[in-house]
Amino acid sequence: MKITYLYLTIFLLVLGCKEDENKSIEKDKLSNHQEWSYEGEAGPEHWKELTNNSECGGNFQSPINLVKYTKNKNLKPIDFRYDEKTVLHSVENNGHTIKYNFEPGDYISWEGKNYNLTQFHFHEPAEHLIDGVRYPLAIHLVHQAKNGELLVIEILAKEGHNSEPFDFLESFLPIQKGEEKLINRSFDMNLNLPSNKNYFTYVGSLTTPPCREGVRWIIFEKPILVSLEQVEMLKYLMPIKNYREEQPVHGRKIEQSSF
Question: d(Cα 189, Cα 187) in Å, to the nearest integer?
Answer without folding.
Answer: 6
